[in-house]
Design goal:
Length: 238
């Protein structure tokens, strides 16, 4: 892929789709939730272990809500979730509300360039076959903020989910495309469970308020051979 602001190679990642109300956790007046059903909203939990990136090796876990600009046309945009991140007709993006990482370099780059809500803490991201094992420590100590553990059901080969982000930075809401490639597998949740710790860290409180403690993911996508590029953000409306 041609050079850009950042490029990374992921050893593994998974997207866990969990349906719960999310509007109260969306901090931006410029955005509204976009994948809703019967008063609930789809929520994504993305877990990565990058083995080679422009800021070195690091782990990352993102809690994100599908959104569109508040003045966008009505509709829930379910099919846009499969549409290219570069499509001009796509306005569905993910607003990351918490993004722990394992290194200070990854934290600084994410905040300074894209305005992403990162913080530094130990993270474990691992999967072998259908076994999923993810944990995010609380930087203040005590119980982990969250764990995602268990065995998924049988999976099928699938393309990676196209990703576009909305992120506030220096008084502007940015549209940030993420170009990804590589084989992946999509599973049903099976016996995988999300457990939220009892601490008071803001990410733990968000997970609890979304009703995610104890849930099984609707679907999980994993890969051991992914490459992605996080592009420079463009203010929405430009």
């Amino acid at each position: 892929m041609p050079p850009s602001v950042a490029s990374v190679t992921s050893i593994c990642d998974q997207w866990s789709y969990l349906i719960r109300a999310a509007a109260a956790n969306l901090p931006d007046a410029e955005l509204r939730t976009a994948m809703n059903h019967k008063g609930k909203t789809l929520v994504a939990l993305a877990n990565y272990q990058y083995r080679n990136s422009t800021v070195g090796d690091y782990g990352e876990v993102g809690l994100a809500i599908p959104t569109v600009p508040v003045n966008a046309k009505p509709g829930e945009r379910w099919l846009q979730g499969l549409q290219s991140e570069e499509s001009r007709s796509r306005d569905l993006g993910f607003r990351v509300i918490h993004l722990p990482v394992t290194t200070a370099a990854a934290n600084a780059a994410g905040r300074d360039i894209w305005g992403l809500p990162k913080f530094v803490t130990p993270i474990k991201v691992d999967h072998h076959g259908r076994m999923i094992d993810v944990s995010v420590d609380d930087p203040d100590g005590g119980e982990p903020i969250m764990t995602l553990f268990g065995r998924a059901r049988l999976g099928v080969p699938s393309p990676q989910i196209p990703v576009m982000l909305y992120s506030p930075h220096e008084g502007q809401m940015l549209r940030v495309t993420v170009n990804g490639r590589g084989p992946s597998t999509t599973y049903a949740g099976g016996k995988v469970r999300l457990k939220v710790g009892s601490g008071t860290h803001p990410m733990a409180e968000s997970l609890r308020s979304l009703g995610m403690d104890g849930l099984t993911p609707f679907a999980i996508q994993t890969t051991h051979a992914s490459q992605s590029r996080l592009n420079k953000g463009v203010p929405i409306g430009r």
